[in-house]
Amino acid sequence: MSINTLGYNTSIALGALFGGLVADDFGVDAAVWFGVALTAASVLVTLGTRSTTSSSVEEDELAAGE
Question: Is 21 helix (H, G, I), strand (E, B) or coil?
């Protein structure tokens, strides 16, 4: 559980650091768009790494002949 907490807190700290740097250099609007770009990238990575094969319980039972 402490490893999860470490991961969450590290993510928050890095987000605040990078968001602050972007806001200082390019303005608050750019920080929002930076967040949108990171969210879109994470969605694409998640969709790209999803398992392409999944089966339901009913399909497994039919395949087993039950």
Answer: helix
In three state form, how does the secondary structure of 24-65 look?
HHHCHHHHHHHHHHHHHHHHHHHHHCCCCCCCCHHHHHHHHC
| Cα–Cα distance measured from residue 54 to residue 21, given in angstroms and rounded to the nearest whole number | 42
Q: Which two tokens stand for residue 56?
A: 């339901």
Positive/negative CA dihedral, 36, 39, 45, 14: positive
* pLDDT by residue, tens only, the chain of 66 residues: 899 999 999 999 998 999 899 999 999 999 889 889 989 999 999 999 877 665 566 666 666 665
pTM for this entry: 0.57
